[in-house]
Write a structure and sequence with these properties.
The chain is mostly beta strands and 171 residues long. It contains no helices and 13 strands. It has a five-stranded antiparallel β-sheet with strand order 1-2-3-4-5, with no helix packed on it. Strands 6-7-8-9 form a four-stranded antiparallel β-sheet, with no helix packed on it. Strand 2 and strand 3 form a beta hairpin.
Length: 171
Amino acid sequence: WSSDVCSSDLGGYQVIVQQGLATFITLPTFLSSSSPQSTLQGWGWNESGQLGLGDNTDRATPTLVTSDVVAAAAGYEHSLFVKRDGTLWAMGADEYGQLGLGFYTTDRYTPTQVPGVTDVVAVAAGDNHSLFVKRDGTLWAMGYNNHGQLGQGDTNDRYRPTQVPGVTDVV
């Protein structure tokens, strides 16, 4: 795998691995509206609370984070997930606004809903930045933007989700 965060489908589970930092989050891929197995589990390095378990203690075994999850992503010291109702939740470090909470906050040790964000269908996380796709096909970004990785035409960090201009019909 060539990226910092990798995803693979193994035995019916989507496994998201944050390389080098040992943060792992698993999510079954065989979800249905009646499936009780749409759970998110995390383990490994947890310095900034990126596992969303209420503290910053590392975990050596899979530990339940939440349920009714349809997508998840792990970035550098932060993680995000999408609930079945389309809401976006974030946890961990927020130094550059990568959690999308609208201001610099201290580390979030529990999942925090990103305000005003609904209809999310996919999420990705990178080195202190995050992206998500809404049901209408628009792409949104937030966080660290030192190299223009948020697609805004500048290098200013974004503390709130900001639509990426000119990108539509994302699948």
